[in-house]
């Protein structure tokens, strides 16, 4: 009988040989990428808050942009206070006037409105009942990005030793949010690296091996963040994209490195040389890392379906950092292992133990194989019960309540609501566009007056501000008569009102409501306003914060089916290529959905319904609209890490023996400890982000930590093995699992 032909080396074997022979060049290339990343970080970027193009609220903001009262997004509310001076004291007025004159001269400032020197009727709006507080409005030039960048300069110019000054408004909120996000990112990284190191030391019991994943993780995050900053110069990148990139990049890079270093040490322990161990490692664990990275990239690729929004750019940034994690895990890490060889085990710790067969994972694997139904049914029930709160999900964009109570912007909002309730009321923007010409002809003024009164009669509305709401007691006929009068014949206050609420062929109305911006009642008010669009021969669109919440939720809902279908479909394809099985990819999808359901239910239970708010220090409220789909796309891919590792090892054993029950038990025994260790690292990294000050980052970190913990314990260690035990040889139904496939496996001498 002739000797069987040896199979040609795989791609990963050839990669291992190339890295082993040229490890110095590979490390040199890594150093060049590191230098470029540092250079990119020093160049900085142009990060913004999350925006969505093409939604109705954005169109309303664009139509009203030319009107002074069209939008409050670039307007700062400034409250001046003095304990002794009153509003009638000339010293108070002079001090405020001198500050505002200085501010008005700044190139970043477009206009200043204050009670100083204003008519008495107007002045009353901006003087608090306390008599010791004055309100001024400072409108900044440019869009949101430019106004936020100008905030520190304007804030410094508003300081005066004689006065106590408090600022609030969207610009102040965004500046505080960006500052907190930067602080949260730095704190999370400072916490996550030591936590990850502790887990790695516990897993490897040697200092050298434990440090290697941190090196790869640091490289991946640095390059990923630098890439995001570079992309932010060409596309809209939200500020907390950096947090997402660091969160995902650090977790996957350390996990991938853990898989490779563990397999390399195992192969060395079996007596292989450094080169042989590296070849075997990349042909097994390296293959799993490549497919895991592809699965995570596919998951994040689902965010590209949300084109025109910051979610699309966030998916691009996340995919970039995962690509760097895979690149460094398959090149720089093997180069370091080639250099170290057996020295990877140096720095053995006093509590090091000798690895041996048997023990906890052998006992667990044996028990699961003997009692699959007793494992499967209770675990499934628990996960489904955890997911039930997700049915009560409510969505709303991040608002000022996301800031800690001690921040100036939030304290200013509370002070504004207490002293100037009308100015602090929730505002719904209505922009009426007429076909052409003057938006305030007598006929159109009458239609605007009717619309204003219709809006004012809606539940929760406390007032309407517009060019036809010029004072109490004015009827429709008076408004029409004044609309027909020459502008120069009108009083100064009415001329100012026209300038504030009219721009081109657009008339602007501000509908004031007592409802909180993110409340269900405010969202219902927006929907009611949109039921009847006509105002004379014009039509209107609705904007403002609440309308943006409604539109963002609708945008996410509209694009979610395509994104979810893409992620699930492509994940099936990736797993099919890896496993050559028809049923295992479908089972993997079901397992991912189970772990996600538990995580989403926990998010609603904690952050929306307020459980654990004392422990986690946050204010409960609706969930950020982008958070569920962001978590779905990120976690769907991350869950594949453990699925690919577990199933790859089970498949190796099945191809070797053809015994499904033995293969499942052996795969669980060999990978169970590694999966839970890798999950412990990810949970430590994600938990560091759950300590953030900003609620959306806190929710993201905790949600991902819960999902990974559930996935690595209940799902991969209990549900997956028990289901595979019950499915038997049906697990391997598909092309590539014939006797010849097992023969090829034996020829390549791939051992577990």
Automatic annotation (TrEMBL):
Membrane association type: Multi-pass membrane protein
Organism: Corallococcus soli
Listed transmembrane segments: 20-42, 185-204, 210-232, 244-264, 284-306, 318-340, 371-390, 562-582, 589-607, 674-696, 702-719
Alphabetical keyword list: Cell membrane, Membrane, Transmembrane, Transmembrane helix
Protein name: MMPL family transporter
Subcellular compartments: Cell membrane
SUPFAM superfamilies the record matches: Multidrug efflux transporter AcrB transmembrane domain
Main location group: membrane
Lineage, top ranks: Bacteria, Pseudomonadati, Myxococcota, Myxococcia, Myxococcales
Domain annotation SSD: ranges: 210-339
């Amino acid at each position: 009988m002739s000797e069987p032909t040896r199979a040609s080396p795989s791609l990963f074997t050839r990669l291992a040989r190339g890295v082993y022979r040229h490890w110095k060049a590979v490390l040199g290339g890594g150093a060049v990428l590191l230098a470029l990343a540092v250079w990119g970080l020093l160049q900085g970027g142009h990060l913004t808050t999350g925006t969505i193009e093409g939604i109705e609220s954005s169109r309303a903001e664009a139509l009203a942009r030319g009107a002074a009262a069209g939008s409050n997004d670039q307007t700062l509310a400034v409250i001046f206070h003095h304990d002794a001076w009153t509003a009638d004291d000339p010293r108070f007025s002079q001090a405020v006037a001198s500050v505002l004159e200085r501010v008005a001269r700044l190139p970043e400032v477009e206009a200043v409105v204050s009670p100083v020197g204003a008519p008495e009727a107007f002045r009353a709006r901006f003087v608090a009942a306390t008599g010791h507080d004055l309100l001024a409005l400072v409108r900044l030039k440019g869009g949101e990005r430019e106004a936020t960048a100008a905030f520190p300069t304007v804030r410094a110019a508003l300081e005066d030793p004689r006065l106590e000054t408090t600022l609030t408004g969207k610009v102040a909120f965004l500046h505080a949010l960006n500052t907190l996000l930067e602080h949260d990112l730095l704190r999370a990284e400072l916490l996550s690296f030591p936590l990850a190191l502790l887990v790695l030391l516990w897993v490897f019991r040697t200092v050298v091996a434990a440090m290697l994943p941190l090196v790869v993780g640091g490289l991946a995050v640095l390059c990923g963040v630098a890439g995001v900053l570079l992309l932010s110069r060409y596309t809209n990148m939200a500020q907390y994209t950096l947090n997402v990139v660091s969160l995902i990049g650090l977790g996957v890079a350390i996990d991938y490195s853990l898989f490779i270093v563990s397999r390399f040490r195992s192969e060395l322990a079996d007596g292989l040389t450094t080169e042989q161990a590296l070849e075997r490692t990349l042909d097994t664990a390296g293959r799993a890392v490549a497919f895991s990275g592809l699965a995570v990239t596919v998951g994040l690729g689902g965010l590209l379906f949300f084109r025109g929004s910051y979610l699309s750019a966030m998916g691009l940034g996340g995919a970039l950092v995962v690509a760097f994690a895979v690149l460094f895990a398959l090149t720089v890490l093997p180069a370091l292992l080639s250099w170290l060889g057996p020295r990877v085990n140096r720095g053995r710790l006093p509590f090091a133990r000798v690895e041996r067969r048997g023990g906890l994972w052998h006992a667990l694997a044996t028990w699961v194989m003997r009692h699959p139904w007793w494992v499967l049914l209770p675990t499934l029930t628990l996960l489904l019960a955890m997911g039930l709160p997700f049915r009560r999900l409510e969505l709303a964009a991040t608002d000022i309540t996301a800031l800690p109570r001690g921040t100036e912007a939030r304290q200013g909002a509370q002070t504004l609501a207490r002293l100037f309730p009308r100015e602090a009321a929730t505002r719904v923007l209505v922009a009426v566009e007429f076909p052409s010409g003057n938006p305030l002809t007598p006929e159109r003024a009458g239609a605007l007056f009717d619309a204003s009164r219709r809006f004012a009669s809606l539940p929760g509305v406390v007032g309407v501000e517009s060019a036809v709401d010029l004072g109490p007691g004015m009827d429709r006929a008076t408004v029409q008569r004044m609309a027909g009068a020459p502008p120069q014949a009108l009083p100064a206050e009415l001329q100012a009102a026209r300038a504030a609420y009219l721009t081109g062929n657009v008339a602007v109305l501000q509908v004031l409501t007592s409802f909180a911006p993110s409340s269900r009642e405010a969202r219902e008010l927006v929907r009611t306003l949109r039921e009847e669009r006509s105002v004379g021969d014009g039509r209107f669109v609705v904007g403002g914060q609440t309308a943006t919440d409604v539109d963002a939720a609708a945008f996410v809902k509209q694009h979610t089916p395509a994104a979810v279908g893409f992620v699930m479909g492509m994940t099936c394809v990736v797993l099919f290529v890896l496993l050559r099985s028809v049923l295992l990819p479908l089972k993997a999808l079901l397992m991912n959905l189970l772990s996600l359901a538990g995580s989403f239910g926990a998010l609603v239970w904690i952050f929306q319904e307020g459980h654990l708010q004392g422990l986690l220090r946050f204010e409960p409220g609706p969930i950020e609209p982008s958070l569920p789909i962001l978590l779905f796309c990120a976690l769907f891919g991350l869950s594949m890490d453990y699925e690919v590792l577990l199933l790859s090892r089970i498949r190796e054993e099945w191809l070797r023996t053809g015994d499904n029950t033995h293969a499942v038990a052996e795969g669980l025994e060999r990978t169970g400890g590694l999966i839970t260790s890798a999950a412990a690292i990810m949970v430590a990294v994600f938990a560091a982000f759950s300590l953030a000050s900003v609620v959306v980052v806190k929710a993201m970190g905790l949600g991902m930590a819960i999902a990974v913990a559930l996935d690595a314990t209940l799902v991969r260690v209990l549900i997956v093995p028990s289901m595979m035990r019950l499915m038997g040889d049906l697990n391997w139904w598909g092309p590539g699992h014939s006797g010849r496939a097992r023969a090829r496996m034996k020829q390549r001498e791939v051992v577990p």
